[in-house]
Amino acid sequence: MAFVTLQTPRSPHSSTKNVGAEQQCRQFPRSRSKSKMATTHDAEALITSHDPHHPANLICELCKKFYTLGWVTGTGGGTSIRDGERIYIAPSGVQKELMKPQDLFVMDYATREYLRRPPVLKPSACTPLFMAAFTLRGAGCCIHTHSKDAVLVTLLCEAAGTDVFEIQKLEQIKGIPKGYGEEKKGNLGYHDRLRIPIIDNTAHEEDLKDTLEAAIQQWPDTHAVLVKRHGIYVWGKDVAQAKTQCESLDYIFQLAVEMHKLGLPWIPK
Ligand SMILES: [Zn+2]
Fold first, then answer.
1. Is 144 annotated as ligand-binding?
2. Which residues belong to CATH 3.40.225.10 in the chain?
3. What is the pLDDT of residues 93-109, one digit of tens each?
4. CATH assignment of 127-269, given 1.10.287.130, 1.10.12.10, 3.40.225.10, 3.40.5.10?
5. Among 113, 158, 166, 171, which one carries the catalytic annotation?
6. Has 171 been annotated as catalytic?
7. Phi-psi category of 186—alpha, beta or left, where left has phi over 0 and alpha has psi -120 to 50?
8. CA dihedral for 22, 27, 28, 29, sign (positive or negative)
9. Sorted alphabetically, which keywords does the UniProt record give (predicted)?
């Protein structure tokens, strides 16, 4: 299931070297700081690079692969990468497998102002949810999928009357980090129990923000939140970690659905 080789994942605290310094597109309200002003050329430079690991190229490549897995079908789902003080975000309503770097929005992390905004596209409704992972958990990448198995797992939990997905004793659980901080370094072990909180869906994606933030606070070790009848948000310190976790979780959800069909318990006795 590996699809992109990520040799040099970027840290959210590094910045892209081949674009100009703090810049802002002229089509947007003037920034409080003159140093943030930029030309249209500067805004285009934000998404122009031959480096396959540049966030603008990576988001397009990842979404193309995610489409083949059924994670971003029918323009659903999305991906965002934090690169230093810049946030790269896939737009709303775009066929994710056909997306180009020119379609991406770029936001200044500190001011939340768009440095680049394609005039014919809408910003992603996932933006406040991606920002929650960046601000509350220091994430460098956040992936949102509409994976069928993630949705099915939330339906099975709903039927069982629980708002937490729990599973134990599967090898792939080792792909999920224990938590945050020095004492929680490393990944879960084979005998550890994986727990992912589930929040209720809302009519509009952006309205999930408050409950997603509350789930992150309530579950301080979690790197993902399931959304009932909708999908999942998964984040990591960088692209490689977010992608590894998203793949591992989806594999575990597929197994969980099959185990349920076979009458096998998620927590062995
Ligand atoms: Zn969604």
1. yes
2. 11-124, 127-269
3. 899 999 999 999 999 99
4. 3.40.225.10
5. 171
6. yes
7. left
8. positive
9. Amino-acid biosynthesis, Cytoplasm, Lyase, Metal-binding, Methionine biosynthesis, Zinc
